[in-house]
Amino acid sequence: MTVCYIGIGSNLGDRHGNIQSAVKEVGRLENTRVIKKSAVIESAPEGGPAGQGNYLNGVIKIETGLSASSLLRRLKSIEKHLGRKKTVRFGPRTIDLDILLYGDKTIKRKGLVVPHPRMFERKFVLAPLEQAL
Fold it and tell me: Which residue out of 96, 104, 118, 122 is catalytically annotated?
């Protein structure tokens, strides 16, 4: 089992409900359990189109037997199931699930970079991550 940290964000619809649903869905993945959840914080959007609503963000700590690639595929499936539609980079979304850390691994592949390349630049990731450690 590998300890991972997943960033969660939402700025469309029922933001709290979207985050709660995503956490439940992650906990239902095979060979995966949610160990800890950070508090949810609100932040202004960074980048993307003007006029977006504020985000709610948090981090969950999980243990998983899934490979990083399998975990990413399943997270993308959860996003789609919860209504995420990719429109514009850094645009509004019902849910966003990002692998921040996957054990002590460094991964650089098309579509998957761990540690998450921008997490150290974003207080809305670092503050909840610190709580989830």
Answer: 96
Catalytic residue among 74, 93, 109, 118: 93
- Structural domain boundaries of the chain? 2-125
Please say if 98 is a catalytic residue.
yes
Catalytic residue among 14, 15, 74, 84: 84
Per-residue pLDDT, 88: 63
Whole-number pLDDT of residue 90: 65
Q: What is the pLDDT of residue 49?
A: 75
Residues 6+ apart with CB under 8 A from 14: none
pLDDT at residue number 91: 65
CATH 3.40.50.1820 fits 2-125, yes or no: no
Q: Which residues in the chain come in under a pLDDT of 50?
A: none
Pairing mode, strands 41-43 and 107-109: unpaired
- The widest CA-to-CA distance across the chain, in whole angstroms, is 41
* 74 in active site: no
Residue 96 known to be catalytic: yes
